[in-house]
Structures
1.
Amino acid sequence: LEAFGGDYYAEANYKLNVMIKLTAGRLFLRTAELLAAGKSDVEIMNDSKIAGFIQTAEKLHFYVMIIDQRNMPAFPANEAGGKPSYIPEDCYFMMGDNRFNSLDMRHSYTQKLTALTPDDPYSVTYYSNMEPQYVHKKYILGSALYRFWPLARRGTVQTR
């Protein structure tokens, strides 16, 4: 974990990147072996090892498709040397009440091609809408009157 400066998100994406590349490499190598052995297209399509690699690839693909909804990088992003940065004063970050099913301020309305491992020039890429943002308090209208959760703190909210 030292190589990632304690960033579990970056470490997990690095490992996922490696698993995808290994699976693709195994699939290509097995296909090349079968072609070199003179196997037909039908035999290649029905090969049990290829079927296993494809099944693994499908699972990894599914995980990549949900990665931005189930995980979150450090926010705000750390500076180049790993020094943490913070949300500016008088600004707020708003997260949905159902973390794993909320398209909240962790996400943008637009997608961009993103590398799983930014430092790897040959990284697997995917379309991401992960773009954490914050809002300045001058744009927040109204105020909280009652807190529902957590239950131990429910009740009217004291304003300053």
2.
Amino acid sequence: MSIVEMKVPTIGESITEVTLSAWLIKDGAYVHLDEPICEFESDKATLEFPAEASGKLIHVAQEEDDIEIGGLVAKIDTSVAPPSGEESSDPAPETSAAPSPAQTEASANTYATGHPAPAAAKILAEKGIDPAAVKGSGVDGRITKADAEAAQKVAQPAPSPTVTTETVAPSAAVAFSREERKEKMSRMRRTIAKRLVSAKNNTAMLTTFNEVDMSEVMKLRKQYQERFVEKYGIKLGFMSLFCKACAQALVELPDVNAKIEGDHLIYHDYVDISVAVSTPNGLVVPPVHNVESLGFHEIEAKIKELALKARDGKLSLDEMSGGTFTITNGGIFGSMMSTPILNEPQSAILGMHNIVQRPVAVNGEVVIRPMMYLALSYDHRVIDGSTSVTFLVRVKELLENPMLLMMGL
């Protein structure tokens, strides 16, 4: 018997442990070289683990197990021959042949076909939808998060009066219920929890507030939106305008774009803005690099790309790394005011909120304007109070007079 041990590879410099979120190949099934056998959930992303040889797969770890880097996940018995009519996928002269019936059958016996990704599985479970009733659009028929979201709108089973408490979906409300359920936190949620507590306990965090009149920004978007879409194929949103305003202010006030490293301050000659994106597993903050050098359409396209990848769990570790400043928009959920928590090791984060028609005094008269509260949380060890206020006032000025932003003034 010849055994190949499958161990958790080194994934990233700061990652010491992963969670085995899903097996893609059944225990005892024949696996081909480079065929994904399972999925790992790291602190930042979900990754597929490919087979290092062809042979019989022997599970060692179980789903939801936490495994250290270098820990044993599975074994592959390479002495086992492939199923009848199927050839091994070990390196050999290239041939072009259609898959045999046995090959199709072996593929159907794996979890890959019709198996939901972790985020999709959670959505389907919460809505009480059988994965078998959902057609997957991913690789090998894999059910993606988008598939699950579409299914929940169409295929929500009606509750039956004869269902027992053990089979009631988690979202079902029962009068005077005393039931409880215990779920293990996802690795991403655990990491988020640790980072938030660390930011709260290890930084001198303070928040300063201001408000911005969004009239001119909204007028600009309305006036040029159609031509913008015709030229670039993407809409001009608020986020790109906020990113550019922050980038210009960060270049002018480099302390807000700095971070602490030991007894030193690290200043950045570039602006990488992390944009908070909500996913089923929690908030992720992939950065848009060199915002100071990008056009509005380039920022919009990059934000859209990162958001789609984040919601489908397809962000790479490189796409999750870095960032010198963060913007989070609680306004899309209806938030009027908040104090965002720092995204370490960054020294500042800007919180956007909802736009509300409010009475304000303009030139001695009370008028109704679309107003938004802004909140800048910052590390007082790096940024003085005067600098934080100056930064927020500058962002306000650029947004209330967007021609200054367009002309770089």
